Amino acid sequence: MREPDFEARLTGETILVTGHTGFTGGWLCCWLRAIGCKVVGLGLAPITEPNLFDAAKVSEGLASHLADIRSVDAVAAVIEQHRPSLIFHLAAQPLVSRSYADPLESFSVNAMGTANVLEAARHAPSVRGVVCITTDKVYADQDWIWGYRETDRLGGKDPYSASKACAELVAACYRQTMAVRGNGMGIAVARGGNIIGGGDWSMDRIIPDFYRALTAGAPLVLRNPDAVRPWQHVLALVHGYLILGAGMLAGDQVCNGEFNFGPAPGEIKSVRDLVEGLASAWARPDIEFGTGSFIETRLLQVDSSKSRKLLGWDPPGDFQTTIAATAGWYRSFAADPGSARALTMAQIGTYRDKLRAAS
Fold this sequence. Notes:
This protein is α/β, with parallel strands linked by helices.
């Protein structure tokens, strides 16, 4: 489903978003509502304070269900009640650090939770497609200088990465053998780069840590300043997910598979670059250097050629515009927390305007 047709395909559809109370899920719900979708959310209550779900009033205009995807009955009940045509599955345990503290949680949520969503979905006559959101960290770490492609080997040394790789195996199983034993739904997998943008307050992430340090007048502690990551604004990833979902509703078989969504090779930057960009766009906290409590990949990037060629995914902007949008959101929120919804919707509107201008 090539641009700009994807929004028209989604308009008016009933769409279930698991993990709607999370950072990326919140941005996705807001975009879907902006184009006239009937949005249903399923997830746990937010675990941070503040959080995007409450600050941006994400629940307004959607049917929100607080439930755990580790209960297949709870998932099936929501699907049966609302009969969505499309599911975006984002609910997950998303933190590497937390996965070390409680590895069983990561495996039960990320692997078995995905199995529960797909099992409930395949028995629902209304569901035509599921887009499973995983991560760029599903790849076996080869420590090479080029981007991982969708055909490269899966792996994962830490519980988070391994559990997301397991989720991918679950999705592949359901696509290849189980969907046809149900409603014949399509199943896509989206592997996103390091997502940044306004409204993330998770622990042990560089942008929230930067915000907390700056607003509290505390030092920012960097574990690995020279680590290189595929930083990308949350809307660029949501944009890719929406194209995939729209293509599935259109019956495009190309969408049944795995897709990387990451920045162009020249836009891969280090943690130090990210922090310097934020400091230039907003203000500079005191910086200290610490030792990490777990091993991290030195260089990580993905090859998104498949998504760009087959899906027509071509996100506007670059690293600098991503930094400017992210810093601008947090700076405005710090000055007026009540502005979160307006900030979020304004940035979605600006992004959509850029897409229309480029089409």
